[in-house]
Amino acid sequence: MEREQVARLLEKYWQVETTVEEEKMLAEYFRGVDVPPEWETYRDIFSFYEQEREVKPGEELEERIMERVRSRPRLRGAWWGAAACIVLGLGLSLYQGEGGKPVAYQGDKPRAYQADQPIAKNVYKDTYDDPQQALAAVQKALLVASRNMNKGLQPLK
Amino acid sequence: MYKKLLVVLGLLLVGVVTHAQDDAIGKFFGKYVEDSRFSVVSVSPKMFRLLSKVNWDTIPADLRQTVSKLQSLRIISTETTPYVFYKEALSKIDMKEYEELITVRDKGDNVRFVVKESGGIIHELLMIAVDKDGFTMMSFLGDIDLDKLARLSTSMDIKRLEDLKNAKRKNK
């Protein structure tokens, strides 16, 4: 490999832009004998990487890991998990039970009702900010429902 | 043993969680509220309370009464594969909770009304409609008077017809 090419690859290398192949080429080059003295440090670096790659886990590593896994008290957390489940479940069912039935209305205008709960769980973001628009939508929806209802009742008439 | 216990508890928890949003449209909403294929309209109880501040003068009395007894409205509709979603919606309704009210089946044009009732008062009216152009699911919560609701469209159509007549007359 030419010196200039190596210089260019080195440049790329330090920009972290080299491909795997290019890095292999560099490693190979620095493994060679004709490395100029000013690049002597690079030889150390690349040979270090090469050496590290050779390091393999010892035979007994897997054994040691498995031993630890096996000897660990496996389900110590289970009781805590169980407790958490029960508490969560209870909490949720209490939350469920809290709200009563919707309060019946009297008069023409909606009265503020106390039991928001049974509905609140399924309330989604309001589509309209403007009550006027909301009213128009409600009106339209009621009309659609009403029409469809009549569609169902018509054959009987 | 422990594992089994964990599984059972997990299942219990899942049961509780799904129970928390057991109402049909709620389930459906939860699944598709963010889906761009669906258009969604939601009017919350809070908004219904605000409605009382709107000018009601132009609103027919029948409608006014009906609206005033509602607590929330949710509509979800789509034009994509309407029959697929219709089926899915139907499968999500727990018929133990709802009572069937009206079912119309006319070729590809299906409408179903189911209600939730207690003590003679209808607390929820759920409409599921489908035809080849789209699928709509609509849920009204509150205190719903079906007679009044049924009458609504006829009276409003008549009123609209009259408005139209008047407008024509004015044009002449």
Write the layout of secondary structure elements.
The complex is a heterodimer of chains A (about 160) and B (about 170).
Chain A: H1 3-14, H2 20-31, H3 40-54, H4 60-71, H5 76-98, H6 117-120, H7 131-153
Helix pairs in contact in A: 1-2, 2-3
Chain B: H1 2-19, H2 24-32, E1 38-43, H3 45-50, H4 61-68, E2 70-78, H5 82-92, E3 99-106, E4 109-118, E5 121-131, E6 134-144, H6 146-171
Antiparallel strand pairs in B: 1-2, 2-6, 3-4, 4-5, 5-6
Mean pLDDT of chain A: 74
Largest sheet of chain B: 6 strands, antiparallel
Helices and strands of chain A: which structural class? mainly alpha
Rg calc of chain B? 20 Å
Number of helices of chain B: 6
The low-pLDDT segments of chain A are 98-122
Task: Briefly characterize the structure.
The complex is a heterodimer of chains A (157) and B (172). Chain A is an all-alpha fold. Chain A has helices at residues 3-14, 20-31, 40-54, 60-71, 76-98, 117-120, 131-153.
Protein model, in words:
Chain A is mainly α and 157 residues long. Helices cover 64% and strands 0% of the residues of chain A. Chain A has seven helices and no strands. Chain A has helices spanning 3-14, 20-31, 40-54, 60-71, 76-98, 117-120, 131-153. The longest helix of chain A is centred in the middle third of the chain and has 23 residues, at 76-98. Chain B has 172 residues and is an alpha+beta fold. In chain B, 45% of the residues lie in helices and 32% in strands. Chain B has six helices and six strands. Chain B has a six-stranded antiparallel beta sheet with strand order 1-2-6-5-4-3, with helices on both faces. In chain B, a hairpin with a 2-residue loop joins β4 and β5. The radius of gyration of chain B is 20 Å and the shape is globular. The model of chain B has no long low-confidence stretch (mean pLDDT 80). At the A-B interface, α5 and α7 of A face α1, α2, β1, α3 and α4 of B.
